[in-house]
Amino acid sequence: MNSKLIRTAIAAGAVFALPLSVHAADLRAPSYKAPAYVEPPSASWSGFYGGLNGGYAFGTGSDVSLASTSAGFDPAFQAGAVPSSVSLKPNGFMAGGQIGYNYQFWTSWLLGVEADVQYSSIKKNSAVDISGVPAFDPSTTTVEHKMDWFGTARLRAGYIPWEPLLIYVTGGLAVGHVEDTADIAFPAIPQDYAGSASKVKFGWTAGAGIEWAFLANWTAKVEYLYYNLGDNTVDIGTVTGPLATASATFPAKGSIGRIGVNYRF
Asked: What tens digit of pLDDT does each residue of 118-143 get?
């Protein structure tokens, strides 16, 4: 094979090898680009919610006050046969439900409204027996207070120190159905005077609480409320005996401690 033939073969090989080398350079390993990191959205308390609650209520405030409202009862009060006040601190369980709406703003602050209604077993009676008073010996004064349902409509203002904790204060309207009775008896005479008053009472409530988001849409809370529904006055009249009247004034106020669970829609 002569030298001219060899040079021709080398040139032809170079022509075919050039595209192959270019193609091989294009077959380098593909690069992998990780997706851009997107910060997950923070939990939000905004929106509607509803749930259940239960707790215990303690009646507080002034004692039941009694007073004569006619000349016929004046001698009994003046002689001390009827007390001017009777200690009465009703208590009982409560259970019910609530609905509300929250609006979270400035990252860590919250405003909301909430309404609730619950069954109440608040009830208490108390009796004072007095002896040794001439012409009225013995005498028994009995009073009873009960509330069978209770509800509120409140504003809430809260702070979120860190997710998922909410600390809040609350206050607004309170309403409840109360029934009060009073009886003044002189069994030895015998004479009996009694009365009752059943009313829906309106007042106010205020308190504070802590709420914890333990799942994506579920929260649990511990709450304290003080309520004041004002006074309920019972007119005491003659059952047996001469005509005479008196009155008993019952305070409808107390404290509620309760726990609850909410579902956020």
From this structure: 999 999 999 999 999 999 999 999 99
**Is the separation of the CB atoms in 146 and 196 below 8 Å?**
no
DSSP state of 43: P
Q: How far is CA 18 from each of CA 4, 14, 27, 28, rounded to the nearest angstrom?
A: 22, 6, 15, 17
With tokens 């910060």, the residue in question is 39
Q: Kindly state whether residue 37 falls inside one of the protein's structural domains.
A: no
Report phi then psi at 39, rounded to 5.
Answer: -65, 130
What CATH number is attached to the domain comprising 226?
Answer: 2.40.160
> Whole-model pTM above 0.90?
no
Rounded to the nearest angstrom, the gap between the alpha carbon of residue 70 and the centroid of all alpha carbons in its chain is 43
Q: What are phi and psi of 3, to 5 degrees?
A: -65, -30
End-to-end Cα separation, the chain, in angstroms: 91
Q: Let me know if residue 202 belongs to a domain.
A: yes
| CB 178 within 8 Å of CB 151 | no
